[in-house]
Amino acid sequence: EVQLVESGGGLVQAGGSLRLSCTTSGFTFNDYAIGWFRQAPGKGREGVSFSSSEQRTYYVDSVKGRFTFFRDSAKKTVYLQMDKLKPEDTAIYYCAAERALTNSQAIDVPMWWGDWGRGTQVTVSS
Asked: By the 8 A CB rule, do 55 and 118 touch?
């Protein structure tokens, strides 16, 4: 069974930093795309960043230059380093995975992703 477990969320002040982790198991790590999505109160789920099954990384415009995605194949873990956080980054952050996914548009289509973690809360105060 594919398993994804997020951690690292918390409460930080605007301008601060936070690092999220997603530990994985149950699949061939480098054959899967792995991504980060988030859901703010009263809003739908939106993409943040993902690493394709060909190890190419993509970011949505709102986080470019502030967030960094890193894939550690030895630990079968991915990280999302978040810097210069803003109140609008407040959301529950989810890790997702899908086999053999290379389409750059995947960050815009949550329904393409088949496996999800339970999420970790990120709150940014002003």
From this structure: no
Closest CA to 18 of 96, 118, 108, 93: 93
Residue with tokens 């290379």: 102
The C-alpha atoms of residue 26 and residue 62 are separated, in whole angstroms, by: 32
Q: Closest Cα to residue 36, out of 99, 2, 81, 72?
A: 81
Residue 15 Rama label (left phi>0; alpha psi -120 to 50; beta):
left
Both ends of the chain: CA-CA distance in Å?
40
What is the per-residue pLDDT for 19? 98
118's tokens: 């339970």
* CA–CA distances in Å: residue 55 to residues 29, 44, 72, 114, 116: 11, 27, 11, 18, 19
**pLDDT tens by residue, 21-80:** 999 999 999 999 999 999 999 999 999 999 999 989 999 999 999 999 999 999 999 999
Helix (H, G, I), strand (E, B) or coil at 112: helix
Tokens coding 91? 């959301």
How far apart CA 47 and CA 49 sit, in angstroms, is: 6
